[in-house]
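User: Can you predict the 3D structure for this chain?
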Amino acid sequence: MSALALRLSLAGAFVAALVGVWLYMGHLKREAVQARSEAVAAQARAASNAEGTRQVEKVFRSETIIREKANGAVHEIQSAPGAETPVPPDVLDAWSRGIDGLRDGYAGVQRDNPQPAP
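Assistant: Here is the predicted structure, written as structure tokens:
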């Protein structure tokens, strides 16, 4: 093989190696960009999940406080002096009419807006 052919072969191999390295570096860069975007998306999902968890915990705490206050009120009413005395019929009737009036008002709202609230 002549010296010129050897030089051309070496130059061709060198250019092929350069092109190969350039393509490989481009491939690595694309993978890095994709991994970075996946990491950003994962962080956004984690933040969203954390916010959802905080909201659920807030509702749970509020519900627990309401339940504890209601139980305390029930106990206080049941242990009050005269709690075992029956409610007079006229008071019970007035209370029943008031509750029925609330229910009728609610039924009217439902007739006007049959779609349940989200």
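The helical segments are 3-78, 89-112. The first helix runs from residue 3 to 78.
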